[in-house]
Fold:
Amino acid sequence: MIRIGMGRDLHRLVEGRPFLLGGVRIPTEKGELGHSDADVLAHAVTDAILGASGLADIGSLFPPSDPTWKDADSMDLLRQAFDLVRRGGWRVINLDCVVTCEQPKILNHREAIRASVAAALTMEKEAVFVKGKTNEGLDSLGKGEAVEALAVCLLENQGPDWPGIFRALETWKASTAAKTVVQSLQAKEDEPEGTDDPSVSAVALERDRDPWAVLVSTIISLRTKDEVTLAASRRVLERGSTPQALLQIPDETLEGLLFPAGFYRTKARTLKTIGTILLERYQGRVPDQMDALLALPGVGRKTANLVLAEAYDQDAICVDTHVHRICNRAGWVATKNAEETEQALRSRLPVEYWKRINYLLVLYGQRVCRPQSPHCSVCPLFGFCQRVGVQRSR
Ligand code: SF4
Structure:
């Protein structure tokens, strides 16, 4: 994917301030006035790359009202912005800039400016160009009261930084900070407490990755909250730890064990039918092949993938509502439904991450990147995320 970005900035010129362009200090009588060091070219370039990547603009990333950025080195801000852009998978192909002012003349400093900006963006100096113009004596620029910079850049996205994304997710999962955020969110939103693992993964761990337990728990999880799934799975598996045992449970009792899981009566019938099929065709074993799993009633790709990954340790991508939503919001895929997301991820996501993505994103979707108003302000994936369609966030 290729995108164009544009940035513009203007600063008043006053005596007693340094005149900076792209990190190069040019001796002259007046310098740029501003909250940071006011390097007008660095600001225009920062806005151009942020705009092209769809991440933000310089004002929202480094608000002038925030004392943190008082007298900040603008080239440092550019490097920080570029780090975010780069983590979203973007690289700068080329950058073309125009600086307009009456004084100083920038021709003698042009090569130093090109080299400085190119170094900040880790690109070839030849792909950066800077032109100096005057304003023919017109307006504030022509009267020497201000300096203006325009920047246009071309960015190419080479795909998400998967190692960086998974490092951030694993760190979040492991951190006590995650638990603190979780607890404070739960307190605020009065959510029932679950485990630190998605319910099906928790059941898989408790039952030594027994395929029957994973299959039962996954079917219970459909259209059911995680904490309800976990409790119902434990109740059902306590009495029905094998297909044979489950078939011995009276229908009404099984429905009672499943309640309040969504569609608990239908799920009771489905589990009994699956148990019968497994005994008749597979000697009571859960098949370890996608086609055979999909042939079972009530088993779709999400369920089959989860059984293959959690119980049989196969390379499978389970795409549920959280994985589908987060991957699309972040701009890692652009798909209409979970099946398309699975196909897109199969072609883009390195195999080593297939089994982990569901485990990590289910939890992340429940606690940070929530369906309504995601918690972007505390999100470690912010730098990897294009926030597609996010209108409201916390
Ligand atoms: S919480 Fe916000 S920044 Fe984080 S992944 Fe979701 S949309 Fe992106």
The domain at 195-316 is CATH 1.10.340.30 (Endonuclease III; domain 1).
